[in-house]
Give the backbone structure.
Amino acid sequence: MGPSERQGTPFPFEGPVPAELLIDRAGELDLLARRAADRVSVRLVAPRRYGKTSLLLAHAGRLQQTSWRTAHVDLSRVTDLTDVARRLAAAYAHLDTPWVRAHLSGLLARLGVSLSAAGPAVSLGPRPMSADPAAAESVLPRLLDLPKTLWDADRTPTLVVFDEFQDLLVARRDLDGLLRSRIQYHGDAAAYVYAGSEPSMMRELFDTRERPLFGQADPLALDPLPIDETLEDLGARFAGEGLDPGAALGELVVLAAGHPQRTMLLAYLLADRLATRAPGTPQTAAEVVEDALARTQPSHQALWQQLGRSERVVLAAIADGVPPTSRALAAEHQLARGTLDAAAARLADQGHLIRSPRDSRLVDPLLAEWLRRR
């Protein structure tokens, strides 16, 4: 059951969005399909909750319709080699469960991974009490080679998506070398997409000449959703629900600033209000924003408490439309402009800030609104 079915709404905001509910990502999907056909790897960098996983699941769904195998490896928050092996096993086992069961079940059992006696079910049990790096070291290369093994058997290609790929460096800093050492021989057997949400770590992996994956993937960025297309798409969804969003929709879409998840959250909350016969007015839009801030305030507060003084100054300034390295801001807070510039760079590397030569903006429009009200 997809998120939209769970919520009973065409405005899903929790978890990946079904392919049919994506807004304005046709160009990205077409590009991904061309790169897969050419077996050109792609690296996709975008902030968290910006629609990476939704886009890549839609990409996988399209390829599955043309007889590709697909595997989605979630590497978020992996901490060591055992975590990586477990995640890879969970994602790869369904590609050919009998093969995995016949060749790797003993090693996987040592990592807390079990396969059902029949069918493709994979169970990730608790991590073993004591680490077994030898089992992880042994199983990883064989799993990584599975797309090539299957290709040699039936000439069916595999799409492999590594999600939150930058966390591989947290698990062990040489794992990109292990990965490269296996997939460089895969040729037509597989197409790879590396998705990440921390720009600095993704740059280290792909733009540092000394790293094994240097220059090995075409970059793809996810731009904010365009306002006109978003208004048209969401307007049709409200009409389909028999709801009139009026001027409230335009105000909320502008506030969301193209952030996919925040756009859907605000639309969902607006639909909630309209369902109780509230009018689609600017006042209702303001009430929806209050609802959204009430939901998201704990995460904003948690981020704020984690930041140092210079990062707080930069975020608050940008939320107010003040250049983050201006002389006036530096003088007001008695901080060097270089200190503010370094803080802005850190925030951008962490995915909280988008910098450009002309201006800077916060990734999360609700965080910006929360800061403006402090």
User: Anything to note?
Assistant: DSSP finds 18 helices and nine strands in the chain.
